[in-house]
Design goal:
Number of strands: 6
Low-confidence stretches: 1-8, 14-21
Distance between the termini: 35 Å
Strand order of the largest sheet: 1-2
Largest sheet: 2 strands, antiparallel
Shape: globular
Number of helices: 8
Strand content: 5-15%
C-alpha cells in the first residue's frame, strides 16, 4: 500500500504503483522488503529480520518466518528440487497467491484499484476511510471460499497482524495504511519509524 503519486494504470485497469522503470508487480514489491540482500530470494532468516524490523516480537517473527517460508518456498520454485533452506523466489511469488483473499492482487500479482476500493465501499461502515476490528472480521468472512481452509487461515493471519501493528488509538485501520501494504512501502516506513524511535530512546537514557 503506497503513495499513488507515481502510479499509472494499464489497459486492463491494473495499477502500477511502482513508478516508471520498475517492471515488478505490486506483489513482488510487497515481498521484496523481506529480501534484505536484494538477490531475489527470501530465506527464513530474512523473513524473521523483516518482521523484527517493523516491530514484531521475537516469537511472532519466528513463527511467521517458519510458516511463511514453509508455505511459499516450494510453490515459488516450480520444477526445482525442494530445499531445506526454504527459499522464496520473489519473481514467482504470484504463483503462491492464496485463495479467500481480497482480490486486490490479480493472478499476476498486479494491483487492482477497483478491488482495493471495494474493501472500503463494501465493509467500512463507521468510517468510510477505515476499518474497525469488527468490520475487518466481517470482510474476512465475506471473502472466504468454501472449504478453502488454508486460505482462511492465511488471510486471517495477514490482516490480524496488520491490524495489531497499524491500528490507531481508536482501533481504526486506515485506508492509506492498507494501501501502503500492497507494494511494501508501509514496511519501509515502519522500519524507519522504529529505527528513529530507538535512536530517540537511546539518546534519552
Amino acid at each position: 500500500m503506497a503513495s499513488s503519486s507515481s502510479s499509472s494504470s494499464d489497459a486492463d485497469g491494473h495499477e502500477n504503483l511502482l513508478g516508471l522503470g520498475d517492471d515488478r508487480s505490486a506483489l513482488q514489491k510487497h515481498v521484496a522488503f523481506f529480501d534484505q540482500n536484494k538477490d531475489g530470494i527470501v530465506y527464513p532468516w530474512e523473513t524473521y529480520r523483516g518482521f523484527r524490523a517493523i516491530g514484531c516480537g521475537i516469537l511472532l517473527s519466528s513463527v511467521s518466518a517458519i510458516l511463511i517460508n514453509l508455505a511459499l518456498s516450494r510453490k515459488t520454485r516450480p520444477g526445482k528440487f525442494p530445499s531445506l533452506l526454504f527459499p522464496i523466489e520473489v519473481k514467482n511469488i504470484h504463483i503462491a497467491k492464496h485463495g479467500s483473499d481480497s482480490g486486490v492482487y490479480d493472478n499476476e500479482g498486479r494491483f487492482v484499484p477497483s478491488k482495493f476500493e471495494e474493501i472500503f465501499t463494501e465493509h467500512a461502515r463507521s468510517n468510510s476511510n477505515a476499518l474497525t476490528s469488527e468490520e475487518l472480521m466481517a470482510m474476512l468472512k465475506y471473502n472466504r471460499v468454501p472449504k478453502d481452509y488454508s486460505g482462511w487461515v492465511a488471510s486471517w493471519t495477514e490482516w490480524k497482524i496488520l491490524y495489531f501493528l497499524c491500528k490507531d488509538k481508536s482501533g481504526l485501520l486506515h485506508k492509506e495504511t492498507v494501501r501502503a501494504v500492497y507494494d511494501g512501502s508501509l514496511f519501509e516506513r515502519m522500519q524507519e519509524d522504529r529505527a528513529s524511535a530507538q535512536k530517540k530512546s537511546a539518546r534519552s537514557v
